[in-house]
Amino acid sequence: MTDAQAAFAKPSPKQMADAIRVLAMDGVEKAKSGHPGMPMGMADVATVLYSKFLKFDASRPDWADRDRFILSAGHGSMLIYSLLHLTGYKDATREQLENFRQWGAKTAGHPEYGHMTGIETTTGPLGQGIANSVGFALAERHLAARFGSDLVDHRTWVIAGDGCLMEGVSQEAIALAGRLKLNKLCVMWDDNEITIDGKVSLSDNTDQLARFKASGWAVKAIDGHDHKQIQKALAWATKQSKPTLIACKTKIGKGAATMEGSHKTHGAALGATEIAATRQALHWSFDPFDLPEGIQKAWAKVGKQGAKARKGWEARLLNHAQRDDFTRAMAGDLPTGAFEALDAKLKELVSSQPALATRQSSGEALETVFNAIPELIGGSADLTGSNNTFVKNTQILDAPDYAGRYVNWGVREHGMASAMNGMALHGGVIPYAGTFMVFSDYSRPAIRLAALMGVRVVHVLTHDSIGLGEDGPTHQPVEHLAALRAIPNLMVFRPADTVEALECWQVALQHKKTPSGMCLSRQKTPAVRLTDAGENLSRKGAYELKAANGEAKVTLFGTGTEVALALKAAETLEAEGVPTRVVSVPCFELFEQQPKAYQDAVIGRGTVRVAVEAAIKQGWERFIGEDGGFVGLTGFGASAPAEVLYREFGITAEAVVEAAKARL
Amino acid sequence: MTDAQAAFAKPSPKQMADAIRVLAMDGVEKAKSGHPGMPMGMADVATVLYSKFLKFDASRPDWADRDRFILSAGHGSMLIYSLLHLTGYKDATREQLENFRQWGAKTAGHPEYGHMTGIETTTGPLGQGIANSVGFALAERHLAARFGSDLVDHRTWVIAGDGCLMEGVSQEAIALAGRLKLNKLCVMWDDNEITIDGKVSLSDNTDQLARFKASGWAVKAIDGHDHKQIQKALAWATKQSKPTLIACKTKIGKGAATMEGSHKTHGAALGATEIAATRQALHWSFDPFDLPEGIQKAWAKVGKQGAKARKGWEARLLNHAQRDDFTRAMAGDLPTGAFEALDAKLKELVSSQPALATRQSSGEALETVFNAIPELIGGSADLTGSNNTFVKNTQILDAPDYAGRYVNWGVREHGMASAMNGMALHGGVIPYAGTFMVFSDYSRPAIRLAALMGVRVVHVLTHDSIGLGEDGPTHQPVEHLAALRAIPNLMVFRPADTVEALECWQVALQHKKTPSGMCLSRQKTPAVRLTDAGENLSRKGAYELKAANGEAKVTLFGTGTEVALALKAAETLEAEGVPTRVVSVPCFELFEQQPKAYQDAVIGRGTVRVAVEAAIKQGWERFIGEDGGFVGLTGFGASAPAEVLYREFGITAEAVVEAAKARL
């Protein structure tokens, strides 16, 4: 052993933290891009957390009862990559660190869920991690109530930065966590007083401790470089009956020879000179990415210290009465017979289907699956009655027993959507929740992340058009169908009646890696699916609902409440001797996944094509071509009763007929 | 005078408030839709505010130095309609109240800016009003610094509900207001403990007073039905050196005979029986919308009591040295010569234009106009250096003197965008501010309202594609161009080089009633406009940048950094003997407004059409038809250097050539 190695033979906690500092510095330097300041600043806190508190076993990143660590300040991704590497996660290799931010590497600029094991959620857009964590912590409490603390008893630890706390979504998250008394949630705030533009005080002077306290948190401030204080604070956190905030006063870029404390360490490589000087100051004489043996061993030991607990847990699981159900739920598989009632209802409906608002149809779909799929957790952003998200007799999910299955999210669309992501990522639950469709704009950043991560959450978006009526243009989505359809890997459903609503719900729940938006009407609409197709037609995204009498001259496309208008228009055209098909399009995204031959057959090129949807045209050219007709909107709505709006904006069967005739 | 009339001959403040209650109840009843609970609950506070504190003159709703009243809880729109009617605003007629929520009426379900005078901003989406108000109050402070308190010295009063305070954007707003010491901002919180789903405590137990205090506000709690307490509290608010929160404990639906305090009064008509009983309880024996003379007179007097102050102000304006500048600025007109430097720069550029990132080009555009247009107020959500929004030597807009012209918004995209709306609505300033384009998702609800209201704000959205590089998919917009283009009345610009950037900025600033998004690259791009067109070509939305050599066989479309790729592809095609045009498309929205003949000429039907944009295809069919080629993305990006991403995702000149050839 060389002298250099000997100095690390039995590394101090400070030296173990320095390993993170050096790796972070090296990774960013090699990539010539990244954020070294935060990993260096929070290395001490992370070291104490991982070595003394975090329940995990690096060899089993999928251990269901592990503690969850969430790096809300995702730009500090080298912190988590370093930790996963040091503790021995299999795919956190040295090569991955060396390829930080490069094509094909698992070490993306911000931590990406699904790229490297040990990354619990994708973070980077500020505030999302802290809001996710509420979902993680809530899922834990619920599953503990369902399966017992023998199987479920873990904590959620979050590192958040000033940016996370400035984002509005953090307020929604902390208010929720406080209200729900999520005492196993601990946020370690990297209180370094620095943001990109300079000092935090340039734009903020909030007393964060007071703010969290006002929302029902237990709070504490410490020196984030003093390992004893950190240890004491984390121990304190585990004993509170409320969620905990620990303000960790740190220096950004801690350890950097001359740049420590400067916002210049935030978002750029330190440069060769500074790195050399820093190595010297840390007595770290090893090449980039090289680690002294003593450090390697000490950290590897940390990675293994949870093995015993994990094995004990596995033994408990093996003999647990609910073992199979727990394993199935955590795997995200649906119970056998999940759709028995739904299928029965479908059969029943095609013989007699009443006119309902599609939000009611969605409510009926939920009635058929809610008891059959105990993982379903409902909720609404304070619009329960309007969203039809509440299945009767459901217990509210709330402290102290957490066994309930319906969350009162409050007027917090963004926090709700972000927490839903956390719930789905935790596993064992399938969250769905409602708001008005227009407010999908509020939750959009979290919906995007659901799509990027590929998690199963269902957004129930009611009042899906000018059919909302009197509440007026602020509440009427007109561009939201297009805007949601624009998000890759998001299934945007707009069912036309109860049969389609049931089908769409089935598809949504069957897709384990795809979030859905269920777009639903406020107003009643007649049933359009009156015969038994023997299969789930909505699964194809679009299908011929009504064939033409004879060789089709016209194809009419519609979604949701406008399918009925298309059918009525087809009736008129047929009566005038124009053979007309009607295609219902419940989901653009799924249609794109069909074989080309099917797509061509459904689209019916060569026929006159007209689409009707109470929204803007964008995206419909895919179906109607450049010359097709479109009956919809070109601007915002207005305040008036729904039927008046449809008439005044010219979204009528007559207009559809006219658009077709003009092209015949 | 009848006995019934006599009882109101000299109405008490309580009786004046009852007039609001009855009108709100009647308006909602007639519409059979609306929200009576909040207007009834806050009638007392509103009565004291309007009769004792609000500086206004109903006959001159455009008086520049009026106090601003913002109903953040916009669903209580009958409160403001009643107040405007009672105080004598010309267009707040009885007929308008009777046509509440009907087609063509100015009394929309939620207050709509531009429909009825006296409505300062569109509210309804919760949290927006309170965030707007920060912009109103900041604009006031700035203009007072610029023009003196002789001309600018007014307050911003806000009524906000529980929903507003639960929304995350409210936290961004209150933190900003506290930091900026906006002491002339007063929020009256309707603390009625009720939301739609029931008691506030179902989803929230935040100590709001402590929360506001933590962000630097002065706070006070009162009985919101006790006129003396209200008066004392509002007087107190006018004397603070911080923004003020007054928690007004109220009963929702106050005055309703049996439903007072129930969430059932929130969002539905009370019904004939309850209304009759309530009339009796209030000793109000008049027909719907009928008002006793005494009430009419007393309220009309309130509407006129600001006339003297207004006249005094007009006299001061008449003799003010800065009269013309003030009047011009408040009218939203640009100074003479606003674009002299910009025009000069344009001429200079076409002879020698360097390769720049378009965010740098945008920065150069700002350099040419910032000093020429003193109304411009810049800012960034903590990405100043990245957004190129800061013009050198600009003073920061901050307490205590507020004369600066650059706002450190902090990591608060949503609050920033909403406050910008408030600034623009206040008048006298033209706000622009930056963030990464992907975070337009965070500010989207406010951008939508800017478009709906028609206000001039410019969102500088940098890092507009995978060209952002290593930060990865969380930070790379791929669907955002489509999603922003979907918003009606929003100009989404994506300039290709410095010439286009200058042109787009000119167009954005010249549109008084249209918000803009300026989508700008992180990475450098070669100049494409190398000759002097003698006009602002970007104004047309799309134009032929390069003609074909001979009869065009191919048309290539591109935007932003991809225009250079289209040009390169055209070169290859031309070299191979394929006459190829290139069309630059800096703004879809403006192109749609051109004459059809121009549109047809630019689109070039009959040629093979291919578009290239580092984003999803949605919306491009408008240009390329059903069979056109599209070189872009179908999903999310990845983390790697920009040039690697362009290559790996196949967004190259070669791919464009190939797409064209495949169709020839």
UniProtKB/TrEMBL annotation, chains A, B:
<dbReference type="Pfam" id="PF02779">
    <property type="entry name" value="Transket_pyr"/>
</dbReference>
<dbReference type="GO" id="GO:0004802">
    <property type="term" value="F:transketolase activity"/>
</dbReference>
<feature type="binding site">
    <location>
        <position position="75"/>
    </location>
    <ligand>
        <name>thiamine diphosphate</name>
    </ligand>
</feature>
<feature type="binding site">
    <location>
        <position position="359"/>
    </location>
    <ligand>
        <name>substrate</name>
    </ligand>
</feature>
<feature type="binding site">
    <location>
        <position position="266"/>
    </location>
    <ligand>
        <name>thiamine diphosphate</name>
    </ligand>
</feature>
<comment type="function">
    <text>Catalyzes the transfer of a two-carbon ketol group from a ketose donor to an aldose acceptor, via a covalent intermediate with the cofactor thiamine pyrophosphate.</text>
</comment>
<feature type="binding site">
    <location>
        <begin position="124"/>
        <end position="126"/>
    </location>
    <ligand>
        <name>thiamine diphosphate</name>
    </ligand>
</feature>
<dbReference type="GO" id="GO:0046872">
    <property type="term" value="F:metal ion binding"/>
</dbReference>
<dbReference type="InterPro" id="IPR055152">
    <property type="entry name" value="Transketolase-like_C_2"/>
</dbReference>
<keyword id="KW-0460">Magnesium</keyword>
<feature type="binding site">
    <location>
        <position position="463"/>
    </location>
    <ligand>
        <name>substrate</name>
    </ligand>
</feature>
<feature type="site" description="Important for catalytic activity">
    <location>
        <position position="266"/>
    </location>
</feature>
<dbReference type="InterPro" id="IPR020826">
    <property type="entry name" value="Transketolase_BS"/>
</dbReference>
<dbReference type="InterPro" id="IPR005474">
    <property type="entry name" value="Transketolase_N"/>
</dbReference>
<feature type="binding site">
    <location>
        <position position="194"/>
    </location>
    <ligand>
        <name>Mg(2+)</name>
    </ligand>
</feature>
<feature type="active site" description="Proton donor">
    <location>
        <position position="413"/>
    </location>
</feature>
<protein>
    <recommendedName>
        <fullName>Transketolase</fullName>
        <ecNumber>2.2.1.1</ecNumber>
    </recommendedName>
</protein>
<dbReference type="InterPro" id="IPR009014">
    <property type="entry name" value="Transketo_C/PFOR_II"/>
</dbReference>
<keyword id="KW-0786">Thiamine pyrophosphate</keyword>
<feature type="binding site">
    <location>
        <position position="162"/>
    </location>
    <ligand>
        <name>Mg(2+)</name>
    </ligand>
</feature>
<feature type="binding site">
    <location>
        <position position="192"/>
    </location>
    <ligand>
        <name>Mg(2+)</name>
    </ligand>
</feature>
<comment type="similarity">
    <text>Belongs to the transketolase family.</text>
</comment>
<dbReference type="InterPro" id="IPR005475">
    <property type="entry name" value="Transketolase-like_Pyr-bd"/>
</dbReference>
<keyword id="KW-0808">Transferase</keyword>
<feature type="binding site">
    <location>
        <position position="471"/>
    </location>
    <ligand>
        <name>substrate</name>
    </ligand>
</feature>
<feature type="binding site">
    <location>
        <position position="522"/>
    </location>
    <ligand>
        <name>substrate</name>
    </ligand>
</feature>
<feature type="domain" description="Transketolase-like pyrimidine-binding">
    <location>
        <begin position="356"/>
        <end position="527"/>
    </location>
</feature>
<dbReference type="InterPro" id="IPR049557">
    <property type="entry name" value="Transketolase_CS"/>
</dbReference>
<keyword id="KW-0106">Calcium</keyword>
<feature type="binding site">
    <location>
        <position position="192"/>
    </location>
    <ligand>
        <name>thiamine diphosphate</name>
    </ligand>
</feature>
<feature type="binding site">
    <location>
        <position position="163"/>
    </location>
    <ligand>
        <name>thiamine diphosphate</name>
    </ligand>
</feature>
<feature type="binding site">
    <location>
        <position position="475"/>
    </location>
    <ligand>
        <name>substrate</name>
    </ligand>
</feature>
<dbReference type="GO" id="GO:0009052">
    <property type="term" value="P:pentose-phosphate shunt, non-oxidative branch"/>
</dbReference>
<dbReference type="InterPro" id="IPR005478">
    <property type="entry name" value="Transketolase_bac-like"/>
</dbReference>
<keyword id="KW-0479">Metal-binding</keyword>
<feature type="binding site">
    <location>
        <position position="386"/>
    </location>
    <ligand>
        <name>substrate</name>
    </ligand>
</feature>
<dbReference type="InterPro" id="IPR033247">
    <property type="entry name" value="Transketolase_fam"/>
</dbReference>
<feature type="binding site">
    <location>
        <position position="266"/>
    </location>
    <ligand>
        <name>substrate</name>
    </ligand>
</feature>
<dbReference type="Pfam" id="PF22613">
    <property type="entry name" value="Transketolase_C_1"/>
</dbReference>
<dbReference type="InterPro" id="IPR029061">
    <property type="entry name" value="THDP-binding"/>
</dbReference>
<comment type="subunit">
    <text>Homodimer.</text>
</comment>
<feature type="binding site">
    <location>
        <position position="35"/>
    </location>
    <ligand>
        <name>substrate</name>
    </ligand>
</feature>
